[in-house]
Specification:
It is globular and about 70 Å long. The protein is of the alpha+beta class. The strands form four sheets. It has an eight-stranded antiparallel β-sheet. It has a five-stranded antiparallel β-sheet with strand order 5-6-10-8-9. A hairpin with a 4-residue loop joins strand 5 and strand 6 (about 100-105). It is about 30% helix and about 25% strand. The protein has helices at about 1-10, 20-25, 50-60, 110-115, 135-140, 150, 180-185, 220-230, 270-275, 290-295, 300-310, 310-315, 325-340, 340-345, 390-410, 420-425, and strands spanning about 15-20, 40-45, 65-70, 85, 95, 100-105, 120-125, 160-165, 170-175, 195-200, 205, 210-215, 235-245, 255-265, 285-290, 320-325, 350-355, 375-380, 410-415.
């Protein structure tokens, strides 16, 4: 019925509007595997004009229209009960836009962007850790990565955007052309429009990467060394993780500082100079060298293992990421991890901890901590085994407590369900 109505109202639609059961079922779920909202139709647009037409149609007829990229949301943000889901995966073109820029459809994934630009010795200044995300979805959230200590969020490295506004108008915006819209759509998860194309900045990509994994037993020392590295800039990439020291309660945590130095062979980095003054456990560090592209894809083997086990597709993923003021990060992280074990993170899960100078996050609506020179991303990348509702409920309670604690110290949730999404979900 909806397909007939839309087809009659939009005879010039160039893409595909599907009401196939398989497409509706796929659009009713996301990576979180906790929320189910079945739409009435799924649009695979041929261009931004199709997106604009469907947005106008939805506005005129009171039908919710929601964009979807790779479906990596965890709280149902890209779902619409009895609405229309716009699958932006069909807008995946990647093409040059000059020596230092690339024009990318919102549905293009970061691995496709890397494949297109790395052979020419170029790379986006910031890319997310998981290259299976779409460019549009990343920009709508803000986007952080290991080079954010130098370049800010992914949203800070974009030249211009093509956007379909909530009124169904197709607009190109930039820092100088409709700057208010340009600022509004970056980091607000679709609240002010659907990004359909982006022109991304490019910078030089070195040929190789040396990755250092440095273990710490003390959280404060780990955080202090991370801060030292983002201040002195000796590494191109700085991140970190917390790993359970054992399986049982009270086993504690090991903190692993991840750093990378990019270089062009045969001019290898000086390991001794790069690690000078750091207080990690000597002799326990891990060092490896790979091609730069292989480093960017370092998360792919974990995803492949989780897919092979069925966990990626079928397990609930109640993930929680917060951005903390640097001065409160140690207390919040320590208190949170003191009550967790490996089972509270789940199989294939992890804990992210890494700092970004707050002044580097320039896009005004990209989330950041308030009142501190450093914003620390603290993420619980949880996996709840399917068929264990008690485990899932416990993880969700813990996530809610962490968000409340973060808010109490001037922090903010990152890619959490905002009031906008909660209202849209209620209406959907």
């Amino acid at each position: 019925m909806v397909k007939t109505i839309v087809s009659e109202a939009l005879p010039g639609l160039r893409g595909v509007l599907s009401t196939r059961e398989a497409d509706l079922d796929a659009a009713a779920r996301d990576f979180g595997n906790r929320v189910r909202r079945r739409p009435l139709a799924v649009l695979r647009p041929a261009d931004a004009g199709d997106v604009a037409a469907v947005v106008r149609f939805g506005r005129e007829h009171g039908i919710t229209v929601v964009p979807r990229g790779a479906g990596h949301a965890v709280d149902g943000q890209a779902q619409a009960r009895d609405g229309i889901v716009v699958d932006l995966g069909s807008l995946d073109r990647v093409r040059p836009a000059g020596p230092d820029a690339v024009a990318v459809g919102a549905g293009a994934r970061w691995d496709a962007v890397a494949d297109a630009v790395l052979p020419g010795g170029r790379t986006p200044p910031v890319v997310p850790d998981h290259l299976g995300l779409t460019v549009g979805g990343t920009l709508s959230a803000g986007g952080f990565g290991g080079t954010s200590h130098r370049h800010g969020s992914v949203a800070d490295t974009v030249h211009d955007l093509e956007v379909v506004t909530p009124d169904g108008e197709r607009v190109t915006c930039s820092p100088t052309k409709d700057p208010a819209l340009f600022d509004a759509v970056r980091g607000t998860q679709g609240e002010h429009g659907i990004i359909t194309r982006a022109t991304l900045a490019l910078t030089r990509a070195r040929g190789a990467a040396r990755r250092y994994l440095l273990p710490y037993h003390d959280l404060g020392t780990f955080l202090a060394d991370q801060r030292r590295l983002i201040e002195d800039g000796r590494f191109d990439h700085v991140e970190g993780q917390a790993r359970p020291a054992g399986d049982g309660e009270g086993a504690g945590w090991v903190y692993v500082l991840e750093a990378m130095a990019a270089f062009d062979p045969p001019h290898e980095p000086d390991d001794r100079a790069l690690l000078a003054g750091l207080a990690h456990r000597r002799g326990a560090e891990e060092t490896g060298t790979s091609g730069y592209g292989d480093f960017l894809r370092r998360a792919a083997p974990l995803e492949a293992r989780m897919r092979e086990a069925g966990s990626w597709q079928d397990d609930p993923h109640p993930r929680c990421n917060v951005l903390l003021p640097g001065r409160h990060a140690e207390d919040v992280i320590a208190a949170t991890l003191a009550g967790l074990t490996a089972a509270d993170i789940g199989p294939g899960g992890g804990v992210l901890i890494y700092p970004v100078p707050t002044e580097r996050i320039l896009a005004p609506n990209v989330p950041k901590a308030s009142g501190d020179a450093v914003t620390v991303l603290f993420g619980l990348q949880r996996t709840a085994p399917r068929g264990e509702p008690g485990t899932l409920e416990r993880m969700e309670r813990g996530n809610a407590a962490l968000r409340e604690t973060a808010a109490g110290v001037g922090g903010v949730g990152y890619t959490a369900t905002t009031a906008f999404h909660e209202e849209r979900a209620r209406r959907a």
